[in-house]
UniProtKB/TrEMBL annotation:
This protein's pathway: Alkaloid degradation; nicotine degradation
UniProt cross-references to PROSITE patterns, sorted A to Z: 2FE2S_FER_1 (PS00197), 2FE2S_FER_2 (PS51085)
Protein name, per record: Xanthine dehydrogenase YagT iron-sulfur-binding subunit
SUPFAM superfamilies: 2Fe-2S ferredoxin-like, CO dehydrogenase ISP C-domain like
C-alpha cells in the first residue's frame, strides 16, 4: 500500500483542459483559484453554506468548496469566467449585485437553476410535484426557494429575483 496523497488529474474548465497534480484533499475551489487562476468563484464560508463558490459541473450547480478536485475529473467545469448568459445583462440592468462578492456564485447558481426548472425539477414550494405536472411558473417564491443556497451579504435579493424572472419569462 502506498502512502501517496497526490493525484495527477485533468480538469476541463471553461472548454480548456488543464493537467495538474493535486493533494487528494484539495477542493475544486482551491484548485480553480490557486492552481488555475480562476478567481471568479469566491471562498466565502468554506463550509458550503453561502454559495459564493458555486460553479457548474456538467451544467449542474455545485459548491466547489465541498467538491474535491479529483472528483471533478472527467466533468466539464464552468466558472463565471466561462458563463455567457442573458442573466449577466439582467443582473446589471436590475442592479442584482452591490458589493459583487456573491455575484459569480449567484449567476452560476441561477444558470443551473434555470436548467433544472426547464428539466421539470420541482422545488420545495412547487405545488404539484406529480410526474405529469408541467414545470411550475417561475414566480418570486419559486426563484427565492431555488436560489436559497446563495447568500448575499448586501441584500440584493429582490433585484436578483427580478433579473431571474425576466430572463426566465
Amino acid at each position: 500500500m502506498t502512502n501517496d496523497r497526490r493525484s495527477a488529474i485533468s480538469l476541463q474548465v471553461n472548454d480548456v483542459t488543464h493537467r495538474l497534480t493535486v493533494d487528494n484533499r484539495t477542493t475544486l475551489l482551491d484548485a480553480l483559484r490557486e492552481d488555475l487562476g480562476h478567481t471568479g468563484p469566491k471562498k466565502g464560508c468554506d463550509h458550503g453554506q453561502c454559495g459564493a463558490c458555486t460553479v457548474l459541473l456538467d451544467g449542474r450547480r455545485v459548491v466547489s468548496c465541498l467538491t474535491l478536485a479529483v472528483a471533478a475529473e472527467g466533468t466539464e467545469v464552468t466558472t463565471i469566467e466561462g458563463v455567457k448568459h442573458p442573466l449577466q445583462a439582467a443582473f446589471v440592468e436590475h442592479d442584482g449585485f452591490q458589493c459583487g462578492y456573491c455575484t459569480s456564485g449567484q449567476l452560476c447558481s441561477a444558470v443551473g437553476m434555470l436548467a433544472e426548472h426547464a428539466a421539470g425539477w420541482p422545488s420545495a414550494v412547487t405545488a404539484d410535484v406529480s410526474p405529469d405536472a408541467p414545470p411550475p411558473a417561475l414566480d418570486a417564491a419559486e426563484v427565492r426557494e431555488r436560489m436559497s443556497g446563495n447568500l448575499c451579504r448586501c441584500g440584493a435579493y429582490p433585484a436578483i429575483v427580478r433579473a431571474v424572472i425576466e430572463v426566465a419569462g
